[in-house]
Amino acid sequence: QVNSKPGESRCKEKHVGLLSPVGKIEISGCETGLHEIKLPKMSVLPSGAEASAACEVCEGAEEMPEPLEQCMAWLRAYFCEPATIANLPVPAFHHPVLQQDSFTRQVLWTLLNEVKFGETVSYKQLADLAGNSRAARAVGGAMRSNPIAIIIPCHRVIRSGGKTGNYGAGHLVKEWLLSHEKLQKEKLA
Questions:
Q1: 131 phi and psi, to 5 degrees?
Q2: Selection from 68, 50, 47, 49 nearest residue 59 by Cα
Q3: What tens digit of pLDDT does each residue of 22-76 get?
Q4: Percent of the chain having pLDDT more than 70?
Q5: Domains parsed from the chain with CATH numbers
């Protein structure tokens, strides 16, 4: 875990674009780890998203550092072959939010480790899991600052009443991801 101090050489950030069923996902990172997975904001999901669950790298594929390659493999599996996710390494992360010791970091790591494909958790349940049952609101804040969408599955955090709640890329994308996981999980069952 390297925090770059002013004056140190900054990590060489690379960008990759991945065409996915929910549109173009932008991924950035360096040799040390992923910086960000950014989903497109969508008010309308692309038609036929279910039919073509293909994932293709559309830009920046040359000389990908290992964390980016692992990330691509992970996302491809997520969309196309969820049964294989468990065998794939989760790429290293290199983002300040995931390196500073904070409740947000605690929440994001808890979510990554505890809430599996096809499961959901409420803000309050996640606050409990992360060790502070009264911090449901702070969990919402942590979800908003999650730099690594999908891998750190903030889309699996829903409201206690079962409503999907907010999502950075819009509720359509969140609903798509949740129904994708539900369908795939039923297939695997």
A1: 100, 10
A2: 68
A3: 888 999 999 999 999 999 887 777 665 454 456 777 777 677 899 999 999 999 9
A4: 90
A5: 14-87 (3.30.160.70), 96-188 (1.10.10.10)
**Residue from 11, 55, 80, 154 carrying the catalytic annotation:** 154
Q: Give Cα separations from 127 to 101, 103, 110, 151 (angstroms).
A: 16, 10, 9, 19
Record the tokens describing residue 79, joined without a space.
């969309």
Tell me if residue 154 is catalytic.
yes
Q: Give the pLDDT confidence of 124-179 residue by residue, as tens digits.
A: 999 999 999 999 999 999 999 999 999 999 999 999 888 888 898 998 999 999 99
Residue with tokens 């830009």: 59
